[in-house]
Amino acid sequence: MDDPDNPKIEETWKRVVNINGRATFFLTRASMKHLLQQYSPTINIDSCISRNPDPGQSIYAGSKELTESLARCWARELPRKYGCTVNTLASDPVATKGFVLAPESVRQDVDSMIQSTPVASHLAKPEEVAWVVATLC
User: Fold this and answer.
1) Nearest to residue 111, comparing CAs of 121, 120, 96?
2) 90 near 48, Cβ under 8 Å?
3) From CA 24, how far away is CA 29, in angstroms rounded?
4) What pLDDT was estimated at residue 101?
5) Using an 8 Å Cβ cutoff, are 8 and 15 in contact?
6) By C-alpha distance, which of 134, 60, 65, 48 is closest to 98?
7) Angle at which helices 23-31 and 58-82 pack, to 10 degrees?
8) Where are the domains of the chain?
């Protein structure tokens, strides 16, 4: 937030908001014509960071809150038009390739969140997230 490198911050904003917000919006929009008229699931991948962000996570947390807000709107709008369900999966940090390859400082920023997870204090595995998505489907 207070990084003096404006071009870097603007590029980060554009990249992160485009990946999380814009992509979610336009992918969901494009998928509407392919939904079955009954019980087609729409599942957004969110992050618990949007609800309890650590310092230094404002752009990412804000972009994930955008996806959560979209899902809340769609949950009220889309089922009546398309017969679909709208869900959001908000997990703790996931050991994706991108996260594992992120700079150490990024991984340390979310370490307190990982350690405060009451049941299993570890990075979620992608297959754990996939299991939940498959269950919702």
Assistant:
1) 121
2) yes
3) 8
4) 86
5) no
6) 60
7) 10
8) 6-32+39-136
What's the CA gap between 4 and 82, in Å, rounded?
Answer: 46
CA distance from start to end of the chain: 38
Ramachandran angles phi, psi of 35, nearest 5°: -70, 145
**Residue count of the chain:** 137
Containing 114, the helix (H) or strand (E) segment is: helix 111-115
Q: If you classify domain 6-32+39-136 with CATH, what class do you get? A: alpha beta
DSSP class of residue 61? Answer: H
pLDDT score at 129:
92
Q: CA nearest 71: which of 7, 24, 108?
A: 24
d(CA 136, CA 130): 10
pLDDT band at 109, cuts 50/70/90? confident
Residue 127, Cα to own-chain centre: how many angstroms?
A: 16
Give me the amino acid identity at 10: E
Asked whether the beta carbons of 67 and 24 are under 8 A apart, the reply is yes
Cβ-based neighbours of 4, under 8 Å, separated by 6 or more:
none
